[in-house]
Amino acid sequence: MQALRFAAALYRQRLDTVYHAYVRRDPLSRLHSKPGRDNPYAIYDRVRAGGDLVATRLGNYVTASYRICDAVLRDRRFGVRSAEINGPGAPGDALDMSFLDRNPPEHTRLRRVAQPAFSPRAIAGYRPLIERTVDDLLDKALSGGTFDLVGSFAAPLPIAVITDLLGVPDADAARFAAHGAVIGGALDGIRSLRHAAQLQQASGALDAVLADLLALRRREPADDAVSRILAAEGDQIQSSEILPMCRLLLVAGFETTVNLIGNAVNALLDHPDQWAALRADPAGLAEKAVEETLRWDPPVQRTARTPSEEIEIGGRTVRPGQFVITLIGAANRDPSVFSRAGIFDIHREPEADHLAFSTGIHYCVGAPLARLEAAIALQRLAERVPDLRRAGPIRRRNATLIRGPISFPVHAGQRTLAPR
């Protein structure tokens, strides 16, 4: 009976979204549909034209304004309750994403446990592994001339790094990538009964791997993040909170980076002058290319907050239980903040901090690692595959909150050997 109620609510919601997206042309409904997957930025412009804070058909608010997004994300009176705006979840399958779904003081306590694994010293120590992994992946990918940038390069790289950081033995990169794509897609909400079953299977498979890892590290502690998290058990973190934290670090540790690399290469190949500039100065421009991608086409497109008290913002009164949907991808192209906001330019000098990793207390804990991985990946691609070009159309993931290609065929052309 519960499954029937879930199915009825799910398909009623999906039909309602389709109707409002294609018949009523409601901007937020279109963001949850194919137009939002293909080109959310045209929809963001419509939202921006409606004002700083626009009422939605469900009684919430949405904003494309950088100023409002930044203010909401920094204001501690706004908190997270993300599961409540994503529609019906699968029966018995409320996916706990640890401190990502928590407000202070729980958020503060749990984040403090995870933070040391992503300290500047810890991240710097991963540079040799990242460089070695990038070169090994390119050696294999370039042997055939034509390859899938995502499956052969952008996905295996962060999976290799985050599984090493956590201490996951013998990680299966392809399986982790598939599970991560399912879980990342579910952040938009469940799309179908099949998707619900896929989510349940993916989360169950990841949890089984992590449960085995936790049992191993309880018996045999090592120099890895999981062992350090376990060392805090009973003092800073409860036993029931450990597996959700490890799941969050694992999935977030590769989902952000794989989409960042995919979006960056897609933008560079769409702008030959920018690709030529990076090829001419890979070491000097790789980091700037990463930052411009994060501004221009970020992996995470939006998030939401709800206030703990009535708050006046953007000329509106937002009450507890109402959500402000902050369109991060739109804020990063706000023409009142960024000059030539719709232009991709890796020479851009910062005019404001982009919001690709959010801001405030929920600023992405893994941002330094994602930046380092993506910068090394782009630098090596420019150095070793200067003639990189498309070998077919990209296929985007079936999600709109997380943006990136799931398949990206490319041809290497002339290439060089890895430095050894």
UniProtKB/TrEMBL annotation:
InterPro entries: Cyt_P450 (IPR001128), Cyt_P450_B (IPR002397), Cyt_P450_CS (IPR017972), Cyt_P450_sf (IPR036396)
Family matches, as Pfam families: p450
GO biological process: antibiotic biosynthetic process; cholesterol catabolic process
GO molecular function annotations of the record: cholest-4-en-3-one 26-monooxygenase activity; heme binding; iron ion binding; steroid hydroxylase activity
Domain of life: Bacteria
Keywords: Heme, Iron, Metal-binding, Monooxygenase, Oxidoreductase
UniProt keyword Cytoplasm, yes or no: no
The keyword Heme appears for this protein: yes
Similarity-based family: Belongs to the cytochrome P450 family.
Protein name per its UniProtKB record: Putative cytochrome P450
Organism placement in taxonomy: Bacteria, Bacillati, Actinomycetota, Actinomycetes, Micromonosporales
